[in-house]
């Protein structure tokens, strides 16, 4: 008994882990997502299937009845059946066309919805998770596979065809069984003589219900075995094709999106004469892509030929069975057309069942990449405590024994950092490249979590706060800031409501007011040319807009990470001159390699090798003759 249970357990486990179930788990999950997004999609497809089947089988039955009426010289009934045939074709065909257009429209919309799902997932992940190479790889793979191999709309189409094939098989099998179980009328066989009588008796014997059922079952089993074998063989080949080809697609996508069709790369390509090198790379990857698709087309052709041979053999058997039933008198001539049509439908439905099941399995491999991205879990738990809203901006922020190393790295970027940030003061963070300055800011903003130690706000670990509310405390301009191909006002207002007075004030404080006023449409002017005929701006102008964005947020803490790196000396002097106005009543943290900026700050932290090596005012640190003094003097000598 235990052995039988163990055997059943193994069978159940293998079935549960089978590729068939795995593919359909992916498919059903996608169908559920589609239904939750638009509850009309699946019912509309089901209605279209029913209309199509009604059109097919209604036509078969009416045509059969029409032929029998004409052979019986019952022209009155013949005319009636002819009218019914025309009306049913007209009505069902019209309904089918309307539904088909609606279904295709919905499928096109689903193609776009997939990208919306990807975008929602991407922007909802915390910064540390989306910076993880594995998550980025899943994101790019999800986008690429959906774009190249079809997305949820294809899944709905495949399942619709699969359901249509299944219902078609049920109906045609019902008719086929009725044909198989119909007894021959052998009365006229006795009147025949010689060879004709022998053929008639053979037809009667083969048309007996038991014999017909046995032959039909054998043919059906043979077709199912051959079709399943073909489907499994080519599904394995398709899976290997996909797995071995993703690298080529990634490289070709990168070349197209980031180099060939990226106008910002054009000057680098021309200055350094990279055309031949890039085209050589592109040609290599394109040739790899072509070889892949040639192999895939050849494989698909081989699969099609094998399926055609299988269905062809079954169709030959089907015709022989119907002919035998007709010769033996089991069915009328009109019924002959009905059963031939039904058996043809059965054969094509079986082929469709195999074809679309294989398509679902192939599609599951591609869409599995998409679901893998949707299943990416965030690295850290999100807190639930709301942040206290304070008009006076008096918060207490502290680093307590904070150490940090980036995911996948064994090297610490910060080590045992302990400090308190004084509110409403101007602070500077300086140090050599790689000393940990920007990482310190990312940790402070909650973009990463400490590997060791904790950061507190008013004595509470910041991980316990709601992340969005905590990040609302900061207005930041990072070194690698980004502006988008949106109007100026959207780049500055970002995720906050538009207020033109605030916009102009922030632009004025950042020194961007004049050049924005000179733009063709002012605040409505589109930046860059990615989404239309926008305006190209310089690096310095872009940096001023990024500063304006940080100021528009009106956060309690303003952080400027290398805010003047792209500015000329006059523009830099203007930013420094406005620094008091920009950060009035706020806490400001200023990161810069230009030591002259430290003169404007009350408190300076000097980072070295991931630690705070020195801290104090400009005068005090110069007097210490330590690292700050070395950095200051190293730059000051060029201005002596």
Structural features, described:
The longest helix is centred in the middle third of the chain and has 53 residues, at 275-327. Strand 9 and strand 10 (611-616) form a beta hairpin. It contains 21 helices and 10 strands. The chain is of the alpha/beta class. The chain starts with a helix and ends with a helix. Helix 6 (133-149) runs antiparallel to helix 12. The strands form 2 sheets. A 6-stranded mixed sheet has the order 6-7-8-3-9-10, with helices on both faces. Strands 2-1-4-5 form a 4-stranded antiparallel sheet, covered by helices on one side.
The total beta strand count reads: 10
Overall average pLDDT = 80
> Helical content, roughly?
55-70%
What strand line-up does the widest sheet have? 6-7-8-3-9-10
Taking the sheet with the most strands, its summary is: 6 strands, mixed
Q: Low-confidence parts, pLDDT < 50 over ≥5 residues? A: 10-17, 189-193
Given helix and strand content, the structural type is alpha/beta
Distance between the termini: 95 Å
**Helix segment count?**
21
Beta fraction of the residues?
5-15%
What is the general shape? elongated
Q: Compute the CA-based radius of gyration.
A: 37 Å
List the helices and strands and how they pair.
Blueprint: H1 2-16, H2 19-37, H3 41-71, H4 75-124, H5 127-130, H6 133-149, H7 152-180, H8 194-207, H9 209-260, H10 266-271, H11 275-327, H12 333-374, E1 397-404, E2 414-421, E3 426-431, H13 437-444, E4 452-457, E5 460-461, H14 467-471, E6 474-477, H15 488-493, H16 500-509, H17 513-517, H18 539-552, E7 557-561, H19 569-582, E8 587-591, E9 603-608, E10 611-616, H20 618-624, H21 627-636
Parallel strand pairs: 3-8, 3-9, 6-7, 7-8
Antiparallel strand pairs: 1-2, 1-4, 4-5, 9-10
């Amino acid at each position: 008994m235990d052995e039988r249970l163990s055997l059943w357990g193994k069978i159940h486990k293998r079935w549960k882990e089978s590729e068939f179930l795995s593919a359909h788990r992916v498919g059903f999950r996608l169908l559920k997502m589609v239904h939750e997004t638009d509850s009309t999609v699946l019912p509309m497809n089901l209605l279209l299937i029913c209309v199509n089947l009604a059109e097919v089988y209604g036509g078969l039955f009416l045509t059969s009845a029409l032929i029998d009426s004409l052979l019986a010289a019952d022209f009155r009934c013949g005319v009636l059946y002819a009218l019914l045939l025309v009306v049913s074709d007209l009505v069902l065909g019209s309904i089918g066309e309307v539904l088909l257009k609606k279904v295709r429209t919905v499928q096109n919309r689903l193609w776009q919805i997939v990208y919306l799902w990807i975008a929602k997932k991407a922007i909802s992940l915390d910064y540390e998770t989306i910076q993880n190479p594995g998550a980025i790889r899943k994101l790019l793979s999800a986008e690429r596979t959906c774009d190249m191999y079809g997305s949820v709309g294809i899944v709905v189409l495949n399942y619709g065809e699969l359901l249509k094939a299944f219902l078609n098989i049920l109906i045609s099998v019902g008719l086929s069984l009725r044909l198989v179980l119909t007894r021959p009328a052998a009365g006229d066989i006795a009147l025949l003589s010689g060879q004709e009588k022998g053929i008639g008796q053979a037809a009667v014997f083969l048309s007996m219900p038991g014999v017909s059922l046995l032959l039909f079952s054998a043919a059906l089993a043979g077709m199912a075995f051959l079709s399943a074998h073909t489907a499994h063989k080519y599904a394995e080949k398709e899976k290997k094709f996909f797995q071995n080809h993703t690298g080529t697609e990634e490289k070709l996508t990168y070349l197209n999106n980031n180099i060939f069709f990226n106008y910002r790369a054009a000057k680098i390509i021309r200055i350094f004469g990279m055309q031949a090198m890039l085209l050589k790379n592109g040609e290599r990857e394109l040739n790899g892509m072509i070889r892949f698709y040639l192999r895939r087309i050849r494989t698909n052709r081989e699969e099609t030929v094998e399926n055609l041979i299988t269905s062809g053999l079954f169709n030959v058997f089907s015709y022989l069975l119907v002919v035998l039933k007709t010769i033996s008198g089991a069915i009328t001539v009109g019924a002959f057309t009905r059963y031939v049509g039904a058996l043809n439908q059965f054969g094509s439905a079986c082929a469709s069942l195999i074809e679309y099941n294989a398509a679902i399995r192939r599609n599951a491999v591609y869409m599995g990449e998409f679901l893998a991205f949707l299943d990416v879990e965030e690295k850290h738990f999100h807190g639930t405590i709301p942040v206290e809203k304070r008009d006076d901006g008096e918060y207490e922020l502290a680093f307590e024994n904070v150490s940090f190393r980036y995911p996948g790295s064994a090297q610490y970027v910060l080590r045992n950092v302990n400090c308190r940030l004084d509110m409403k003061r101007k602070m500077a963070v300086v140090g050599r490249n790689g000393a940990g300055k920007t990482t310190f800011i990312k940790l402070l903003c909650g973009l990463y979590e400490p590997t060791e130690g904790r950061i507190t706000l008013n004595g509470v670990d910041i991980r316990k706060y709601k992340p969005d509310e905590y990040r609302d405390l900061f207005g930041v301009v990072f070194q690698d800031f980004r502006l988008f191909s949106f109007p100026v006002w959207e780049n500055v207002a970002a995720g906050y409501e538009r207020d033109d007075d605030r916009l102009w004030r922030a632009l004025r404080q950042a020194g961007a007011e004049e050049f924005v006023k000179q733009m063709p449409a002012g605040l409505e002017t589109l930046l860059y040319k990615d989404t239309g005929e926008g305006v190209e701006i310089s690096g310095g102008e872009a940096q001023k807009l990024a500063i304006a964005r940080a100021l528009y947020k009106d956060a309690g803490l303003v952080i400027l990470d290398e805010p003047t790196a792209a500015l000329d000396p006059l523009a830099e002097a203007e930013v420094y001159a406005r620094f008091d106005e920009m950060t009035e009543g706020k806490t400001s943290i200023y990161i810069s390699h230009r030591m002259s900026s430290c003169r404007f700050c009350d408190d300076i932290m000097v980072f070295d090798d991931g630690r705070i090596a020195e801290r104090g005012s400009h005068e005090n640190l110069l007097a210490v003759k330590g690292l700050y003094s070395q950095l200051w003097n190293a730059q000051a000598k060029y201005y002596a």
